[in-house]
Amino acid sequence: MSIDPIELELIRNLFEAAAEQMGIVLQRVSFSANIKERRDFSCALFDAEGELLAQAAHIPVHLGSMPESVRAVLDRLGKLDEGDVAIVNDPFAGGTHLPDITLVTPIYCDGQLVGYAANRAHHADVGGISPGSMTLSTHIDQEGIRIEPTLLYRRGRRNEELISRMVSAVRTPDERLGDLEAQLAANHVGAAALIRMVAAHGAQKILAYGRALLDYSESFMSRAIAAIPDGEYRFEDRMDDDGTVTPSVPVQGEDSRLSPSPCNQGEGRGEGSVRKQTDQGTGQSGTGTSSAFSPLRSVLIRAVVRISGDRAIVDLSGSADQVPGCINCPAAVTRSAVYYCFGCLLDESIPLNGGAFRKIQVMTRPGSIVHALYPAAVVAGNTETSQRIVDVVLGALAQALPDRVPAASCGTMSSVALGGQGWTYYETIGGGCGAGPGWDGASAIQCHMTNTLNTPAEAIEMQYPLRVVRFERAADSGGRGRYRGGDGIVREIEALSACQGTILSDRRVFAPYGLNGGGEASPGRNRIIRSDGSVVVLPGKAHFSLEAADRLEIRTPGGGGWGSV
Question: Can you tell me whether residue 80 is helix, strand or coil?
């Protein structure tokens, strides 16, 4: 069948509109603030072979990982029948971390399988040892219920045994069931949209144009990679710690502001280093630090990017070994981070689908920090380590494309989970974006692998026993330079009743780097201000208790500066 370019663009927009409609429905009918307000979800359409056709512009970390979950479902369960719905959240089967639950629905038209609708949503609690399922864990089973690819519905009949197991595992069962129903509704909308397309144009044409769309995206990425000078580019950076428990530090008085780094005017981390530290799994030297906490368990992430013609190889096999803590990154998330970096080189109008990444090979070493194996704890690998993978890949690409790639952004999602009797609250907090050649970094925004909104103060205070005391820009936290990095955020939340909490954050020790002579950004800071005025400084990853009138203050990092002043 010959492909008409105008019709290709029209059908491409139909695919993308269907994915966007799925997202609108999921947001509107979900129960939890995390989905309804923050939009922590992604929706996509796949062809009958499981190739990604269109994903709405939701969460970058899902870009490469949701297709792997769909592939795991098909490999494990085979072709789904009409009326089936598969469910999976297993990080070792294309998942990200356990709170991200994926539903996959086959789409049949007149008895013919024409594609799949799938969506992934972050559930505010899936059990585990801490409210919100954001845990200082050392084993995947401590993080919540793990669902390998299985059928939630078989030919229209719900798997009540699975539902019972899920409900008994979580702290907020009604909310979980409501969010699952919203996910089912979203897939129904996507399926209906594809059926309408088939009814209007015919199954053969829709399938042929879907394949052509994959080739179309591949051609654009091939040209983008070919524009990068051939060569080998290296960059490395570090995670603050391995995610195991670090003691909190009581501070006398109210002012516990951390001192600035002695190397705040550094220039990024290609092959050099400033200080010696002990590093997890590698024995390599570390870099400048800014924290009250010694980075004795810092974890190396190293990227080697090789460009040859229109092909790219991103080798992360030199990264540290898998660690005891919760920052291990599933291989699917690692690929998502790499794909995101190369996707940033494309014009925004280019569709990012399964074809776009055919010319990109991601090399990892099983059992490493970027390719976690069971039973590794991974909850912060999705939120924190993925951000550092972006930093090292962009840092390597900056050597090849110095006039296009910005300095490091905040490099953390600063995930906060709080919970008490019958409620759980979760959100990520933005930071500063890195400055680039010709522009200042944006302030107070979600950067890179997360693309969510903040939870409005009104929604928090209406739904939870919490009060938002401060939500403001962290002034002067961006790195200095000819172009200044964006500033981070100060988020201060008061507990109105006793609760438990977890913070999973990074860039509290190793600051976001500047480029081309630009300065590092200020690192972040976490602390509790007790009702009696005493202050406890928390490490980047911590579990804690709040009593009524205690306040949790999160100050997120800014973005690095670009260019000498």
Answer: coil
Q: Give 409's Cβ-side CA count (13 Å radius).
A: 29
Q: Find tokens 């080697």 and name the residue.
A: 304
Q: What is the side-by-side order of every strand in the sheet holding 150-154?
A: 52-55, 41-46, 112-122, 100-109, 85-88, 150-154, 157-158
Residue with tokens 């490493």: 368
Residue 178, token pair as written in the block:
């409501």
CB 342 within 8 A of CB 312: yes
Rg (C-alpha) for the chain, rounded Å, is 23
3-state secondary structure of 312: strand
pLDDT digits (tens, 9 = 90+) for 13-60: 999 999 999 999 999 999 999 999 999 999 999 999 999 999 986 687
The count of C-alpha atoms lying within 13 angstroms of the C-alpha of 429, restricted to the half-sphere facing its C-beta, is 32
pLDDT > 70: percent of the chain: 91
- Distance between CA 444 and CA 365 in Å, rounded? 35
One-letter amino acid at 554 equals I
Nearest to 522 by CA among 552, 561, 550: 561
Contact 467, 550 (CB under 8 A): no
Say if pTM beats, i.e. exceeds, 0.90. Answer: yes
Alpha carbons 55 and 15: distance in angstroms, whole number: 9
Kindly give, in sequence order, each residue whose CB lies less than 8 Å from that of residue 255, ignoring residues fewer than 6 positions away. none
Structural contact between residues 151 and 77, judged by C-beta atoms closer than 8 angstroms: yes
Task: Please list, in sequence order, all residues whose beta carbon lies within 8 angstroms of the beta carbon of residue 5, skipping any fewer than 6 positions away.
Answer: none
What CA–CA distance (Å, rounded) separates 389 from 387?
Answer: 5
DSSP string, 108-174: EETTEEEEEEEEEEE-S---SSSGGG----SSGGGGS----SEEEEETTEE-HHHHHHHHHH-S-HH
Sorting pLDDT into bands at 50, 70 and 90, what band is 247? low
- With residue 305 as reference, give the H or E element that holds it: strand 298-308
pLDDT digits (tens, 9 = 90+) for 115-164: 999 999 999 999 999 999 999 999 999 999 999 999 999 999 999 999 99
**To 10 degrees, the CA torsion angle through 289, 290, 293, 297?**
-20
Local structure of 188: helix, strand or coil: helix
